[in-house]
Amino acid sequence: MKYRLVVFDWDGTVMNSTSLIAECVQLAALDCDLPPPSTQAAKHIIGLGIRDSVRLLFPHLSDAGLDLFADRYRHHYVPRDGQVRLYEGIETVLHSLAHDERFLAVATGKPRRGLERAFDHCGLRHHFHYTRCADEGWPKPHPDMLEKLMAFTGVEATQTLMIGDTIHDLNMAASAGCDGLGVSYGAHAPETLRMVAHRAVLHSVQELGNWLKQNA
Fold this sequence. Notes:
12% strand; 10 helices; alpha/beta
């Protein structure tokens, strides 16, 4: 067993939520009298945490403007997040990783309340030993989430794998000294993921499961 700690991003890796997130970012921009970003631009910021995301899209916004945008984003997203579904086959992947000497964890750009709602909706909470959210420390791509998870579990970086659909996940892994595994069925395209250090870039949940069986 190469990896004793396997960490999953959430949106775009476990949950098929990237399209809804991008739509709600666009709607929040309209509410704030800002030009709505393209779907590609809105998806690019997924995983960073809402305030850091908005700063990338609209660097001129004041703190009050950031707060308003975040509020309008939640206004559009929260009533609909129960509609979001797991990627088909992802629970089978989680089952296949179960081992007495392995920890599974989540490192997500969601706030804690958002992740807990998602767990309530999808029923996956019991698969994960530890979770870290964007409002509990430094958000991605800072290595804080992975460093905390490794400290909780006592697992070294060389035995830790980060799985995610964005370069923010892969950059976080590289900064923490961990291996990163990209999945291109979420927010970022394969060519974007390949710009960052990675073990592999996989294109479906089935490919992810097969890779983990052979390499994890």
